[in-house]
# Entry
Amino acid sequence: TFEVQYQTLPNLYLTTFIDAGNVVATWRAPIKKSAGVGLTYSTPLGDINVSLAHAIHDGHQPWRLNLTYTN
# Structure
């Protein structure tokens, strides 16, 4: 994963990212790639992230919305 964050407000960050990887039983399986954008809100209890990602390896896949919380 490669991610860039830009602080827009004191606790709000705009992010853009590229991911690559796969979980496979053999090394011959292709690596899947995706890219997207998101917003991260930083709170005293942890970060809340909302991101939208799209598969690069297969343009026919739908966009995916992800919501995560990290502390």
The mean pLDDT is 91. The longest strand covers residues 32-43. DSSP finds no helices and five strands in the chain. The CA atoms of residues 11 and 43 lie 7 Å apart.
